[in-house]
Structures are given as C-alpha cells and as structure tokens.
C-alpha cells in the first residue's frame, strides 16, 4: 500500500474516486473524444479587427495595448473590461498571465484569482486583475538609467524575470570615448505573493565585450555572444555568492546614502547582486545564431555547427560528455526560403520534434544495443504533408509533342504545395496540432489538424475559412474547445478569428455566412461596434 509506483498507477486508473484530479482527467478524456469524432465541427463564431496588436492568454483576448479584454469562453465573446485610452507614457511593453498556485495559503483573497503582470514603458511593474483590469499591486523598477522591456519566466508561475533593453550610449557620448560597461539589468521576483529576490547587472568587464543577449531560465543564467558562443551559469550559486543584502518590497532602506522605499517611486529597486568576478562556468557551446536547447532523458542538447554552410543541420549531443548521439546529425536537406526547425517535445517525454516544409519527424532517444553508455536517435513517427497532386517534373511534353525543360525546380516550401507552418502541443488533451497551408495566387487555404501525440495518427482536420497569406505573420491557438487565429497584415493591421466546437446539425449547415457576427474594433474611441 505504501509503494509509490503502485499508488501512482492506481491513481492513473481512477481508483481514488474522491481525488479531484481523477474527475478532471476523465472529463478531458471525454472532451478529446468529442472533439475528434466525425460529427463535431468548429464554426467561425466571431471576428475582430484592430489597429494595434492582439494578444491571447487562457481564454482572454487583449486589444488596444491590453486596455480592452474580451472573454472567448462564452458562446459568444463578451467584453470583460474596457479601460480608457492610455497615454504613450503608460504604454505596456510586455505582459504575463499569473495563475494561482494549488495547495498554498496566500496573504490576499485577490491572489487566488488570475491576474496579469504588465510592464510599462516608464518602468512600472503592475499586477492587474485578469477579470476587471483593476490595479492590485504597483512596483517601480528604476529611473531613466535603464529601460526595462521584457518579461519571462525562470520557473513558470513561480519565479519571474524582468529584463532591460541593451544599454547603448548616445552617439555624442561615444564620440568623446565615454565607456558603458553595464549591458543589461535583470530583476528577479517570486510571485504570489509578489516579492523581490534581487537585481543584477550584466557587465562586460565580467562577461566580456561581445555579449549580445542574456536570460534566466530554470535556475540557469544564459549568456549569449556575437560569435555564437553560449555560456551557462548556476543562478542560485550567483545569488549565494554575490548578493549584498536581501531586500523586501515596501521597506524603507538606505542604499549608498540614498534613503527610499524599495519598489516605490523614485527609489525603485537597488542593484543588490554585484557580480565582482566571473561565476563558475557550468557549460558552454558554440552554435550558429546562438541556437541552443537542452532536454531529453538522459540530458542532451541540440546545436547547429557555427558556420553558415551548416544552417539547417542539427547535432544532438550528450550533455554529460558532449558525445554526439548515434544518428545524432539531423538534416532534412530541404531547399526552401524558410528553414526547418527542431525542438524538444513540450510533453516532457524527452522526444524531439523536427519540422520541415512537408515533413514532421518525431524522434526519440534510446540506448544503443550492446552499449548502454551511448544513446541513439530513432524515429518514433512521421507526419507527411498531402502533396498527392503535386507534380514537379523537370521535363514535360506538350499536346503537340514539343519537349519543354524547366530551368528551375520548385522550392520545398513553394506556396502552391501544402506546407507545414505551425506545430503545437495541447497538453490537457494530449494532441499534437499542425497547420498546413496551400496558396494558389492570392487565395491561401489552411487547415488545422489534430494528431495522436503517441503515434501521430490523424484524428481530426478543421478547415480555416479565412484566406491565409503566407507572407503575413500568423499565430494559431488551440485551447480545449476553442481555435483562435491571429493574423498580422501590413501597415499594422491585425485580425482575430475565433472558432468554437459545435454540434453538426442541419440547421447549422443552412446558416449563411452573413448571419455570423462580425465585430470591428475601432481604435479611436476604444469601442467595439457590432453589425
């Protein structure tokens, strides 16, 4: 009864009926079956257009720089809140959705509801209610010495990182040989309750002159260099070695002779992590365009050799000893305008997804026979684009018998051939989703397909009704019973199309396209007009 493996197996089989997770897993299993059955359709129920970027987070659509929030969960999307138009000084640079952790006691009732962390152009970090837009917390980061611009997760829903833009001296200062040694600032916070861990500088006197970017992820400080070098450092070890003093938000403090309240204007947050020497190096690798990923079991990493001629060639190596895995060089040898891409599967299975114009490979790591110390890359399954009608002969014969030779061959991602554009994973339903596009002339047709994540079998195909232009930027979200397509057109024109799962009835089939509700977002008044 106390065997952990046996308890986990019994729980997965549903033996513990009082466990809330059992009911949730059963419901998601039912939803998956309903979505994938032939009679289920996805109907375009709502469309909106905007002159500003459109963002989507967990059933909420944000318009007009997060001033308008629309719920997409209801049968017809509805406005949750709409705030007055903000000035340029209040513009939001980035945002993260913050959700309540399970099984923890929190100091405020508002902490148990979803909230939105936003970063403004004036270095304010705000926590807003996700349902009303009300400001719950305000933190002032710093003065004009640096411009914070990016939000990211170190540990999702636990530790957040606020990163500045790269510090660059004005041209006049460079002409008189003024030196700028600090390249980036990073502020790190624990969330819910929101607390300050520390702020650090990335100084070229410590890390070198050629630093181009920096990030903190999963407890690792990642530093990238212009020559393609990537270096990893233990961030927890940096905290323990170089933190001068821990600080609490809202406490009055004297820092270098300046008295103020931590996180309040104009004091902001002091830089309390001073790296005075190069931290111990965990790992380094050289890769084209700093492309570097870690994953799999046992740990492996993926790089592209640091030469332009190797673009599109990926090496999968052991993190333990840098040994190249057997069959660890992956090269699709595709001739296309857009390169293929590769990444570790987000389902934590340790598999690898390699996406080309007309082929998706799902790869797995397994032990080499007769050599348990080495791993090899094996093919788990493949998904192939539908190009049955595609003929690309170099020589053709006309009806009159004249032989015509082509001077060039079609590219692998030629718009007139079905090409994969997006591959994603829906973790709650355990489905692998793909978007494939075919464009003939100005009219592009796209469809969203759902595949079994374990075997790659096609379970469902959903046609997207709007025309898809391959030259535009596109995002597609599949969230349980909702499909959302965001399109960015030239001249900062944005469109959002929402599809919802519906029962396939004769009445639905008879509905004409003019009966659908279309809403156009007008930026001037910040209002939504329906017609």
Automatic annotation (TrEMBL):
Gene Ontology CC terms: Cul4-RING E3 ubiquitin ligase complex
Where is the chain membrane-spanning?
182-202, 214-233
Q: Which organism is it from?
A: Spizaetus tyrannus
PANTHER family referenced in this protein's UniProt entry, alphabetically: DDB1- AND CUL4-ASSOCIATED FACTOR 17
- Tell me the keywords, alphabetical order: Membrane, Transmembrane, Transmembrane helix
Q: Which InterPro entries match?
A: DCAF17
For this entry, the protein name equals DCA17 factor
Q: What Pfam family is a match, any one?
A: DCAF17
| GO term, biological process aspect, one | protein ubiquitination
């Amino acid at each position: 009864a106390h065997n952990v493996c046996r308890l986990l197996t019994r729980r997965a089989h549903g033996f513990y009926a009082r466990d809330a997770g059992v009911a949730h897993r059963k419901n998601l299993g039912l939803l998956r079956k309903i979505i994938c059955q032939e009679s289920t359709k996805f109907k375009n129920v709502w469309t909106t257009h905007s002159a500003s970027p459109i963002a989507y987070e967990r059933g909420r659509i944000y318009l007009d720089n997060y001033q308008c929030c629309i719920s997409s969960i209801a049968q017809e999307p509805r406005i949750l809140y709409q705030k007055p138009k903000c000035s340029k000084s209040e513009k939001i640079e980035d945002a993260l959705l913050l959700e309540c952790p399970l099984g923890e006691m929190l100091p405020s009732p508002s902490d148990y509801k979803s909230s939105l962390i936003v970063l403004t152009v004036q270095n304010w970090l705000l926590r807003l209610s996700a349902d009303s837009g009300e400001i719950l917390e305000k933190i002032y980061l710093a003065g004009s010495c640096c411009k914070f611009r990016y939000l990211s997760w170190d540990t999702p829903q636990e530790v957040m990182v606020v990163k500045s833009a790269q510090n660059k001296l004005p041209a006049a200062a460079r002409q008189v040989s003024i030196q700028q040694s600090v390249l980036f600032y990073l502020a790190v916070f624990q969330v819910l309750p929101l607390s300050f861990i520390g702020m650090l500088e990335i100084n070229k006197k410590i890390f070198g002159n050629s630093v181009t970017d920096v990030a903190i992820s999963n407890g690792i400080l990642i530093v990238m260099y212009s020559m393609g070098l990537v270096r990893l450092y233990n961030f927890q070890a940096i905290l323990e070695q170089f933190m001068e003093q821990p600080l609490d938000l809202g406490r009055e403090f004297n820092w270098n002779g300046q008295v103020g309240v931590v996180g309040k204007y104009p004091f902001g947050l002091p830089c309390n992590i001073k790296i005075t020497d190069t931290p111990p190096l965990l790992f380094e690798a050289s890769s084209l365009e700093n492309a570097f990923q870690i994953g799999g079991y046992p740990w492996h990493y993926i790089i592209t050799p640091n030469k332009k001629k190797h673009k599109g060639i990926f090496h999968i190596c052991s993190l333990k000893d840098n040994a190249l895995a057997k069959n660890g060089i992956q090269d699709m040898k595709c001739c296309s305008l857009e390169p293929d891409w590769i990444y570790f599967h987000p389902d934590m299975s340790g598999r690898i997804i390699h996406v080309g114009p007309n082929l998706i490979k799902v790869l797995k790591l397994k032990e080499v026979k007769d050599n348990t110390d080495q791993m090899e890359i094996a093919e788990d399954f493949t998904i192939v684009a539908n190009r049955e009608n595609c003929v690309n002969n170099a020589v053709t014969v006309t009806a009159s018998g004249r032989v015509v030779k082509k001077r060039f061959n079609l590219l692998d991602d030629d718009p007139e051939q079905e090409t994969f554009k997006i591959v994603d994973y829906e973790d709650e339903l355990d489905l692998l989703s793909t978007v494939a596009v075919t464009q003939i002339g100005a009219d592009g047709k796209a469809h969203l397909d759902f595949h079994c994540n374990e075997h790659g079998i096609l379970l469902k195909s959903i046609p997207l009704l709007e025309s898809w232009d391959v030259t535009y930027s596109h995002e597609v979200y599949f969230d349980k019973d909702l499909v959302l397509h965001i399109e960015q057109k030239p001249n900062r024109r944005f469109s959002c199309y929402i599809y919802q799962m519906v029962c396939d009835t004769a009445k639905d089939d008879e509905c004409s396209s003019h009966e659908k509700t279309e809403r156009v977002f007008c930026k001037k008044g910040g209002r939504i007009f329906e017609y």
